[in-house]
Amino acid sequence: MELARTRSLVLLVDDSPTQSRRSAEALEAAGFRVRLAHNGREALDDARRWRPDVIVSDVLMPVMDGFALCREVRREPALARVPIVLHTMTFLDPRDEEFALGLGATRFVLKPTNPADLVAEVRAALSAGPANITPPASTVEDNAFLQGYNQRLAAKLEEKVAELEDAYHRLEQQSRQNELILGSVGEGIFGIDRLGHATFVNPAAAQMAGLTVEELLGRPIHDVLHHSRSDGTPYPFEACPSHKVLTDGAVHRIQDEVFWHTDGTSFPVEYLGTPILDHGEIVGAVVTFTDITERRLAETFLQHQAWHDLLTGLPNRTRLRVELDQLITAESPEPFALLLIDLDRFKEVNDTIGHPCGDLLLQQVGPRLRAELREADTIARLGGDEFVVLLRGADIERARTVAARLVIALERPFELDGFGVAIGGSIGLALYPEHGADGDSLLREADIAMYAAKDTRSGYTVYAPDTDRHSRERLGLLADLRQAIDRGDLLVHYQPQIDVRSGSLIAVEALVRWPHPTRGLLPPDEFIPLAERTRLIQPLSRWILAAALRQCASWRAAGLDIPVSVNLSVYDLRDQDLPDLIDEALAKHGVPAERLRIEITESSLMANPPRAREILARLRARGVQVSIDDFGIGYSSLAYLKNLPVDELKIDRSFVHEMAVDPGSRAIVRAIIDLAEVLGLRVVAEGVEDEATLAALAALGCDVAQGYYFSPALEPADLALWAADAVGQTDLAA
Predict the structure, then answer these.
(1) What span, in angstroms and rounded, lies between the C-alpha atoms of 690 and 667?
(2) Is 372 in contact with 405 (CB distance < 8 Å)?
(3) Contacts of residue 144, Cβ cutoff 8 Å, sequence gap at least 6
């Protein structure tokens, strides 16, 4: 029976080509054979010729409607028992259904919108078997009914027309409102068809392109805005992400592209390409873009400030350290020499003729040294009157030769306000890999050699182990530190972090202290660098992490539920097992991942950006928050920064401390806060020591503050008491 049904012939009658095609496709997919007719007259002729198994007809059609078709079919003896299904899209009225059935229709129903329903209707009509209906004898009553039907239909159509007019007016108002909205947004928006031609352009997009909306409509947007890459080379449409949107139907977010003005200048953009789909078919795309020129200028400014000494314009300490790290971690490291230079008698210049003259002298040191070096050699200022020269590929002989020339160069008088000042300099030499395996060690050895040169007044000295006046003391301290970690003889104090707007306590930072049996309470800067130069930094970091999480769990049990920040070093980031170790520590102490914040210094992140991004992404996936510590003094590329999985920037205290009185520091703080806002990051200012600094930070929109103005780092019990006293304090920034 099923086999017979699926081979049945359906005569489909509808004056809508689109509706006919969709209905026919559905029936054919279900196994039926289909003949199409566009009106009742054509259908009657086809029915006489093809003898269909079932007729499915619309009611309202030109030439002959569905009612008349039904009546005529029933008058044909050969067709009298063919099932007829009449469809109407207007409305169902009991009188209409009674009339249709009286004319010989098998069913009178609303036209199905779902193809599956249509197939079901046909199968139901076939299952009912041949119709057994007496053909209508008179057309008088038929005509009377049709007249009434037409009157009801006219009234219904009039009602529908009124509804459509009302809907049109609402649509027109909404369209106008949408036009106003799109015209008011600052982002550029344009729509394109499958060929990339503009179908819509908002005023902002036209203004950025330097054209009018009318000049852009209908034109290939790629040829107008996106024809070349940032270096000026051609950018074929086939390689453009907008073209990919039109071919793969995916959303594409692009961050490093440029658009072009009509005058030939370009501007950096971020843009989002989204496909326009019509019943699953890609018919075009919408591109939304933003001019990020101001952001790029801020990035350039911050990058320069981060990598260079403000006074001399030379690379700074952290820029030097990243260069050293890159040299040492290269696949085939080349030897190099570090020359650490300390100016002699510089303090006398400041004391006798003033700091402005001292600054002028420091600005002349770089050019004086550069004249004796190759272009590939690097000069950096460490701070004060200390400079470093990095000689790539140098052996001991070349290092000695260059050092001797630099000593002579520094002995020549410097011209300051019309008179010459002779100062001289002392230089310490350290070579890689002979004297150290990392940048910190080499700088330390060069520093030791420099002091030896000062003591002997030899001009320069090459590092030798017997010149290390601090080696025995360092080794003893190292042994004590290892023992303190093993025994758990360290302390962790906690410094509050305060919401600038509400004044509430929102987190604490864990800061380690070492109660040395003979030296007293040592701050971290007296033993952390020592641990970082050895393999002690990882066990030390794990001890601090465990202690902080244990204390966090204790506070939570007592009702004080605050996140705790823990500092990690660059060496911790090299450990692929770090995320798993943190997982274990969180589980052991029952602390949710979101209550832990990991602080990594800016220089640590940029020592190996791909590795840092991988480790931090794994931590973020677990719910751990990530903070960049000492931000502003490092050398981070902002192209890397915006892709790093971080939540927070901590402005270095050196900028915060001076911002209330130093316009330069205030400008840097403002730039960092603006950058963080663009990137959606929280900002913490370290080293807040007075109300004026806090007020300045609040005015700039800083989120969180930390420093002695609120509280020093406290022991756990004292922190809990401090937190209890601080409850209810609000609006510290007012």
Answers:
(1) 19
(2) yes
(3) none
Domain boundary among 79, 113, 137: 137
Kindly state whether residue 171 falls inside one of the protein's structural domains.
Answer: no
Q: Rounded to the nearest 5 degrees, what angle is found at the Cα of 56, between the Cα atoms of 54 and 62?
A: 135
Sign of torsion, CA 231 232 234 236?
Answer: positive
Together in a domain, 427 and 342: yes
Please state the φ and ψ torsions of residue 714, each to the nearest 5 degrees.
Answer: -120, 155
Q: What is the CATH number of the domain that holds 393?
A: 3.30.70.270
List the alpha helices (DSSP H) in 75-139: 94-103, 115-127
Q: Are 145 and 152 in contact (CB under 8 A)?
A: no
User: Which CATH number do you get for residue 275?
Assistant: 3.30.450.20
**Beta carbons of 236 and 251 less than 8 angstroms apart:** no
pLDDT value, residue 293: 82
One domain, residues 710 and 569: yes
SS3 287: strand
Can you give the C-alpha Rg of the chain in angstroms?
41
Q: How many CB atoms lie within 10 A of CB 213?
A: 17
What is the percentage of the chain residues whose pLDDT exceeds 90?
40
DSSP code string of 213-248: HHHHTTSBHHHHH-SB-TTS-B--GGGSHHHHHHHH
Task: Give dist(CA 434, CA 421) in Å, integer.
Answer: 37
Q: Domain of 102: which CATH number?
A: 3.40.50.2300
Specify whether the CB–CB gap between 684 and 672 falls below 8 A: no
Distance (Å, whole) CA 612 – CA 628: 12
Residue 633 included in any domain: yes
* pLDDT tens by residue, 103-132: 888 888 888 768 888 899 899 888 876 666
Residue 490 and residue 541 in one domain: yes
CA distances from residue 578 to 228, 615, 619, 679 in whole angstroms, order as listed: 44, 8, 9, 26
398 and 456, same structural domain?
yes
> What sections of 438-536 are H helices per DSSP?
439-456, 471-487, 528-532
Q: How many CB atoms lie within 10 A of CB 577?
A: 10
Question: What is the signed CA dihedral for 43, 48, 52, 53, rounded to 10 degrees?
Answer: 120
Report whether 85 contacts 105 (CB < 8 A). Answer: yes
Question: Measured between alpha carbons, how far is residue 732 from residues 407, 418, 695, 704 in Å?
Answer: 54, 52, 9, 11
Rounded distance between C-alpha atoms, residue 33 and residue 52, angstroms:
9
Instruction: Show Cβ contacts of residue 611 under 8 Å, excluding neighbours closer than 6 positions.
Output: 573, 574
**697-723, pLDDT tens digit by residue?**
999 999 999 999 999 999 999 999 999
- Considering the domain architecture, whether residues 519 and 630 belong to the same structural domain is answered as yes
Examine the domain organization and report whether 269 and 345 are in the same domain: no
Quick count: other Cβ atoms within 10 Å of Cβ 515? 12
pTM attached to this predicted model: 0.45
C-alpha span between 719 and 563 (Å, rounded) = 13
State the total domains in the chain.
4
Structural domain for 515, as ranges? 473-726
φ, ψ of residue 421 to 5 degrees: the values are: -125, 125
- Would residue 734 count as lying in a domain? no
CA separation (Å) from 618 to 315, 567, 621, 644? 33, 17, 5, 12
**End residue of a domain, out of 224, 256, 291:** 291
pLDDT at 337 exceeding the cut of 70: yes
Distance between first and last Cα of the chain: 85
Residues 456 and 495 in one domain: no
Asked whether residue 298 is assigned to any structural domain, the reply reads no
The DSSP call for residue 315 is: B
My answer on whether 399 and 424 are in the same domain is yes
